[in-house]
Write a structure and sequence with these properties.
The radius of gyration is 18 Å and the shape is globular. The two termini are 14 Å apart. Helix content is 75%, strand content 0%. It has helices at residues 3-19, 25-39, 43-62, 77-103, 107-131, 139-153, 156-167, 169-174, 186-203, 209-233. The chain has one domain (3-239). By secondary structure, it is mostly helical. It comes from Terrisporobacter othiniensis.
């Protein structure tokens, strides 16, 4: 085993340990604060967020608009992850530039940032799935992508449930229905939206919107990239 794989396995074990940690008091308080804060937001804001997530989930489950690559074959883990990290950096720059532009526009343009950022996230995950050798033409692989987004952006308590499914994905996916219309995506969109609102709201504030939008979008892509890498590592024999 080379040094890269030794380091990667250590990092992956630490990440899994973090995912399994008990829910902290701070996380419980933060979750309650976010829910209260979200209840105070204008109805129009909730409609935009809800519709954006609904559209994204349906596009992933029922469409192929994001599919661009065949699964990568016959390359090492190190080679795969070099390509993955270059993809993350590319999409991060795109998200940060987009966040600066829409954040500078205040409330109206800031609201348009949410669906744009969702599209960037999904496109990145489709690319990462292919690089790790998974075929997203299989709806169960597209469902796994939705679980990655859930794990990255849901509350800690809800994320633990998602992690348990993903850690045992082969067994879990065997029990999934053949008809993708039976998938219940409503809880997914609610958890995702509730987590993201607080960070994204700062982007809409006049004066600080541009700087915060630039920063938040970059951090969100960093977080998504880390979760995606470790989520696909869990599915590889080399990490079992």
């Amino acid at each position: 085993m080379d040094n890269y794989m030794i380091d990667a396995k250590v990092q992956h074990k630490l990440w899994k340990r973090e995912m399994k940690k008990k829910v902290s008091l701070i996380n419980k308080v933060t979750s309650m604060t976010q829910k209260k804060f979200n209840s105070m937001l204008p109805k129009k804001y909730h409609e935009i967020l809800t519709n954006a997530v609904k559209t994204m989930v349906k596009s992933v489950l029922f469409g192929y608009k994001y599919i661009t690559k065949e699964p990568f074959e016959n390359i090492s883990i190190e080679e795969r992850e070099k390509i993955v990290n270059s993809k993350i950096n590319f999409y991060k720059k795109t998200a940060m530039a987009e966040g600066f532009a829409t954040g500078a526009g205040g409330i109206i343009l800031g609201m348009t940032d949410f669906p744009l950022l969702l599209s960037i996230k999904v496109k990145l995950l489709y690319d990462i799935a292919a690089i790790y050798g998974f075929d997203v033409r299989d709806y169960k692989e597209r469902l796994y992508i939705l679980h990655i987004i859930q794990l990255a952006f849901s509350s800690q308590s809800y994320g633990k449930n998602i992690f348990d499914k993903m850690e045992n994905w082969e067994a879990y996916s065997c029990g999934l229905p053949n008809d993708i219309n039976d998938f219940n995506w409503q809880s997914f969109q609610q958890e995702y939206r509730d987590y993201l609102d607080l960070a994204k709201l700062l982007q809409l504030m006049p004066g600080i919107g541009a700087a915060v939008g630039f920063y938040v979008n970059g951090k969100l892509l960093d977080k998504l990239g880390e979760v995606a890498i470790n989520s696909y590592r869990m599915r590889l024999e080399e990490f079992k």
